[in-house]
Amino acid sequence: MKFEASSGKPIFGRVLTAMITPFNADMSLDKVGVAKLASYLVEQGNDGLVLNGTTGESSTVQDDEKTAVVAGVVEAVGGRACIVAGVGSNDTAHSVHLAKEAHAAGADALMVVTPYYNKPQQAGVIAHITEIANATPLPVMTYDIPGRSGIPITHESFLTLSKNPKIVANKDAKADLVAASEAIHETGLTWYSGDDGLTLPMMSVGAVGVVSVVAHLVAPLMQQMVSAAANDDYEAARKFNEQLIPVVRAVMTRMPGAVAIKTVLDQMGLPAGPLRLPLVAATESEKKRLLEELRAAGLNC
User: Fold this and answer.
1) Is there a catalytic annotation at residue 143?
2) Per-10-residue mean pLDDT for the chain, 301 residues long?
3) Choosing from 166, 171, 174, 262, which is the catalytic residue?
4) Residue 171 designated active-site
5) Is the pTM value of this prediction over 0.90?
């Protein structure tokens, strides 16, 4: 696949699920479940899958497991969906290694999160992302999430990064629509909402779609909302968004997204399995409330 930055074109698709990583009861990687879940998500209408990201419990998935996830998903749905492999960490050399492994496993693109914990200067952020981008032929989606990483990618840094032809998109979880609007206009990068609840307003300033958590559960509805917004039918998009908001609230506001999604997928009989520490399963009361809210929103779970 050939990808070029374009602020108006959904180069990786419009709805991409940030896929959870299924585990077996003994905490080993559920390779069969990975393939089965990927197939289910694509059949539900996802244009792409983002693997080994936050919702995929990337911090507790080992390097060989990450490669196996990419390879398994490529085998299951390659050619039917865009496969984006999360390879970011706060160690540039390690991220370069992950990027090369993802490329060898067949990924279509890479996602690189802002370095976390060590909080480098913006010059370090630029150097980090650039070195990873230049390590393989694959296009790169940056992931700007200062709430987790501790630092943003600044507007000036986006201007610099956008000059690299390998860096073509950004997943925006900064929750700053003014900054997003300016960056979309001035950088030409393809912009994706990284916050389910802000997808519609983000699209109103130029984003093309979403890297979603709740699309595990409501991909058809998310596609309807995103497609309506992409066609400038904001009256219809608002109606679809009104249906999505209770799902977003239930899944994203009381526990980590991976915990909520695995709880619901298990209830639905789909591959999910346990969570690796430090994440822990929802309590019975949390599970009951989550399922009640989703059922009230119209989900069959």
Assistant:
1) yes
2) 62 97 98 98 98 97 98 98 97 98 98 96 98 98 96 98 98 97 97 98 98 98 98 98 98 96 98 98 98 97 94
3) 171
4) yes
5) yes
